[in-house]
């Protein structure tokens, strides 16, 4: 018998009893008693018979939150599973309907009473206060991590997408009273306090109450006396799910978002996370971060290709799938470092910054990508201590290899002395490479290090990268770097030949993608842009004499198309049990795919020829000027 939507209103349960019930179940248990009383007063309790429909939030967004008071309720988290077994079975204290209420979208669930049940219905605007706190965000993160994921279109957010407005910025010597007034006028719960050298503090409602009311700090004191004790930092491009977990682990109310040059972009609160789309990567991030051993880390990391298959098959754009994978690699690397160093108590973790290089530094990793790395030590130490650190870094890479993240032992890896130096040594080396890139592999090292992104330790701009911001003032170096960037040509004729001889594989990385990556890296250096991704680098440098808007757009389109094909074919290789590689079997390609590759390589080659011609006839100082 199909369920009905009839329901009977239950006589009102005593407000105090209902408030006490809320105090026993998350996320309401974190509310103050007075807030739980308000919640209880805004609630109604209704009785549902077995089989009755309580909610179908696939048909319309729910404006309420539901809590099981007695009985049991079955949930379907996917509109296509209505005739299948339920995804969840809730007992008293179980909460549902919050996803549709918070997102104001028809995203489910469908809820049906299993047996006679009493269900509390809470008005959305009142219930939302419980989800806007740290504990509410924790509840949502754990709900995503433990529930069965619907088969509908997943979503993935980067942390900067959650920034709702320009942050309130105040100065360290501003008076507490003045800052509190500005926060009230702006209707914001925090203000950013620049602390010098690209570092920031936060003053929040909570920190003001703690310092002024509890500690007795006068309101005439400077706001630097009322800073929050924990200020998590996220960088542009970081996974929103990962940033949420960092905020919760630090027991913080906000995350400060910086760009790759450590400039302030905005602040994201717990409520911003609750109103964002579901983050597709939260469950796996949480499992990886909780790994207690290397074996657990390996087992959980090896699940990531299956997640990518699921996300791509359910419609998530390939660029976002690649971003998910890059974020997961970051989490695996961080946890591997933590686990390895538990066995090295004599080697403090705060003495170095770990940089991801190459494709993962650019957040463009796919299944075939090596995990390249470098380390910047905070200060000097005896040589034998550096040797001990490098041996531990080797253990980290060994753990990563077991987790499916390979690296070239003779390539760019932190265990090698050339890729693990002090900040001062990196700065000195970068200056030498900038002055004479033809010596000591300066051009190659420059290309590697400008892709560097801190993933463990200090999130500031690496000293080596800061030096290269000055490359525009070295025209000779700029010319040599351009020559090196154009040395790997996209192969139009060779590609056409291979596409006709179907037995020969096509190396999509070597023959198509790397030429674009190299151009974009040089272009970003030439205009002093700190962005890392290939697409953003091309956008940052477009409109110049050497990189017109039209050709920048064509290169971006070619890169995205090639990355999409690369990801799709690699996931096919993974699913078939074969070796994942950048060599694509031309014989199994469709005619459309072969045509797309040929056109993309043609566009890249045309850009390379133009850049070579412009650089031959114009002086370097005119290369980055506006196109005439």
Your description of this structure?
The structure is a single chain. The chain has 628 residues and is an alpha+beta fold. The protein is 46% helix and 14% strand. It has 25 helices and 20 strands. Strands 1-2-9-4-7 form a five-stranded antiparallel β-sheet. It is globular and about 85 Å long. The N and C termini lie far apart (73 Å).
Summarize the structure.
The chain is α+β, with helices and mostly antiparallel strands. The model is unreliable at 1-7 and 149-153 (pLDDT under 50).
Features:
globular; 46% helix; alpha+beta; four-stranded antiparallel sheet; five-stranded antiparallel sheet; 628 residues; disordered N terminus; 20 strands
Biggest pleated-sheet summary? 5 strands, antiparallel
The helix/strand class is alpha+beta
Uncertain regions: pLDDT < 50 for 5+ in a row?
1-7, 149-153
For the secondary structure, the number of strands is 20
Rg over alpha carbons: 27 Å
Into which percentage range does the β-strand content fall?
Answer: 5-15%
């Amino acid at each position: 018998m199909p369920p009905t939507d009839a329901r009977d209103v239950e006589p009102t349960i005593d407000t105090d009893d209902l408030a006490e019930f809320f105090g026993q179940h998350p996320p309401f248990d974190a509310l103050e008693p007075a807030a739980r009383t308000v919640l209880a007063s805004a609630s109604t309790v209704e009785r549902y018979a077995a089989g009755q429909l309580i909610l179908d939030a696939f048909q319309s967004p729910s404006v309420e939150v539901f809590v099981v008071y007695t009985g049991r309720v079955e949930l379907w988290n996917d509109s296509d599973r209505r005739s299948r077994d339920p995804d969840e079975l809730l007992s008293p204290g179980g909460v549902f309907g919050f996803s549709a209420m918070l997102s104001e979208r028809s995203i489910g669930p469908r809820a049906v009473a299993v047996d006679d049940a009493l269900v509390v219905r809470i008005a959305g605007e009142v219930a939302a206060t419980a989800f806007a706190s740290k504990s509410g965000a924790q509840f949502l993160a754990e709900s995503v991590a433990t529930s069965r994921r619907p088969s509908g279109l997943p979503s993935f957010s980067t942390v900067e997408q959650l920034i709702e407005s320009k942050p309130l910025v105040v100065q360290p010597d501003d008076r507490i009273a003045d800052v509190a007034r500005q926060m009230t006028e702006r209707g914001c719960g925090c203000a950013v306090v620049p602390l010098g050298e690209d570092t920031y503090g936060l003053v929040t409602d909570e920190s003001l109450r703690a310092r002024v009311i509890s500690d007795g700090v006068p309101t005439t004191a400077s706001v630097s006396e009322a800073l929050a004790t924990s200020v998590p930092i996220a960088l542009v491009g970081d996974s929103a799910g990962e940033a949420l977990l960092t905020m919760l682990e630090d027991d913080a109310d906000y995350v400060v978002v910086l760009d790759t040059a450590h400039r302030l972009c905005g602040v994201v609160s717990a409520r911003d996370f609750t109103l964002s789309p579901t983050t597709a990567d939260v469950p796996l991030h949480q499992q990886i971060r909780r790994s207690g051993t290397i074996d657990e880390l390996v087992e959980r990391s090896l699940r990531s290709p299956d997640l990518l298959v699921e996300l791509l098959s359910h419609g998530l754009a390939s660029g976002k799938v690649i971003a998910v994978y890059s974020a997961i690699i970051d989490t695996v690397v961080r946890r591997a470092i933590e686990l390895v160093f538990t066995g090295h108590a004599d080697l403090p973790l705060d003495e170095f910054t770990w940089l991801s290089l190459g494709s993962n530094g650019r957040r463009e990793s796919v299944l075939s990508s090596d995990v390249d790395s470098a380390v910047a030590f905070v200060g000097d130490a005896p040589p034998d201590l550096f040797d001990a650190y490098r041996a531990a870094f080797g253990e980290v890479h060994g753990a990563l290899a077991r987790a499916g993240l390979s690296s070239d032992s003779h390539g760019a890896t932190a265990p090698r002395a050339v890729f693990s130096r002090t900040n001062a040594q990196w700065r000195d080396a970068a200056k030498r490479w900038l002055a004479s890139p033809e010596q000591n592999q300066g051009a190659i090292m420059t290309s590697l290090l400008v892709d560097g992104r801190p993933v463990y330790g200090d999130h500031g701009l690496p000293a080596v990268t800061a030096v290269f911001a000055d490359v525009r003032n070295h025209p000779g170096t700029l010319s040599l770097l351009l020559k090196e960037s154009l040395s790997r040509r996209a192969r139009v004729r060779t590609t056409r030949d291979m596409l006709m001889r179907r037995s020969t594989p096509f190396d999509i990385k070597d023959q198509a993608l790397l030429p674009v990556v190299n151009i974009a890296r040089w272009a970003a250096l030439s205009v002093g842009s700190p962005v890392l991704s290939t697409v953003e680098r091309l956008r940052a440098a477009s409109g110049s004499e050497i990189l017109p808007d039209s050709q920048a757009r064509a290169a971006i389109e070619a890169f995205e198309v090639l990355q999409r094909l690369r990801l799709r074919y690699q996931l096919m290789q993974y699913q078939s049990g074969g070796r994942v590689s950048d060599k694509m079997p031309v014989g199994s390609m469709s005619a459309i795919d072969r045509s797309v590759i040929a056109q993309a390589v043609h566009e890249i080659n045309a850009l390379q020829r133009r850049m070579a011609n412009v650089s031959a006839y114009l002086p370097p100082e005119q290369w980055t000027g506006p196109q005439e």
